[in-house]
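so my prof wants the structure for this chain in the C-alpha cells format not the other one, which i didnt know existed until like an hour ago. anyway here's the sequence
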Amino acid sequence: MAESTLMLSEELVRWRRRQQHLEESLRRLSEEEERLTRELVKAEKQLAYYSSLTSDMKRELEPPSLASMLKSFRKS
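here's what i got, hopefully its the right format
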C-alpha cells in the first residue's frame, strides 16, 4: 500500500509539473502573439504608406493626359 501511495504521489507531482510547463508555454505564446500582432500592424501601415507614395510618384512622373490638360485650361 505504501508503494502504491508513493507511486500515486510521484504521478501527481509529474502531472503538476506538466501543467505548469503547459501554462508557461501558453503564456509565452500569448506574449509572442501580441508581439507579432504589433509587428503586423506596423507592416500594414508601412505598406499603405509606400503604396500611397508609389501612386503619388507615378502621377508626378506620368505625362498629363489630354483630358487632364483640357480640364486645367478650362479652370484658367
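also thought this was worth mentioning. Helices lie at 2-61, 66-75.
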